[in-house]
Amino acid sequence: MNRPVVLIVDDEEGARSTILNFLKERFDCEFAEAKDGEEAVNFVKCHPCHVIILDIKMPKKSGITVIKEAKEIIPGLDILVMSAWVSDDVAQEAVEAGATDYLVKPVDLKVVSMKLSDLLLKKGYNASKI
After folding, report:
1. Is 61 helix (H, G, I), strand (E, B) or coil?
2. According to the model, what pLDDT value does residue 102 have?
3. What SS3 state is found at 127?
4. What is the CATH number of domain 5-122?
5. Domain boundary assignment for the chain
6. From start to end of 10-127, where are the E strands?
7. Which neighbouring-strand residues pair with 128?
8. What's the whole-number average pLDDT of the chain?
9. 98 in the Ramachandran plot: left (φ > 0), alpha (ψ -120 to 50) or beta?
10. What separation in angstroms does the CA of 38 have from each of 2, 9, 24?
């Protein structure tokens, strides 16, 4: 079985690299990065993708738009949304658009790791290194 593909999307390079480095140590996955919503949708159009870890507020395309467009391309795609916005309306809008889950920034990396593990296991991947 091929390794699952996980796309990390955040316009803040530091946040993206922190999440990426943490997850790379714990999962045997193909990881990719995107710095904005437009780059994320273009990645999904051209590559198989299993999970997106997505910031909601970004330039070029919002996270909500990314969710909608990515789910049209890959209907079974799981999208874990992260946002500094502590708003029930934003969380509800993300879930209604097709997000799998919603986490408030700053995210606890252990929680992100557990959520990713659960999503991958549901897809039949046991990609955990630890």
Report:
1. coil
2. 93
3. coil
4. 3.40.50.2300
5. 5-122
6. 30-34, 51-55, 78-83, 101-104
7. 27
8. 93
9. left
10. 26, 10, 24
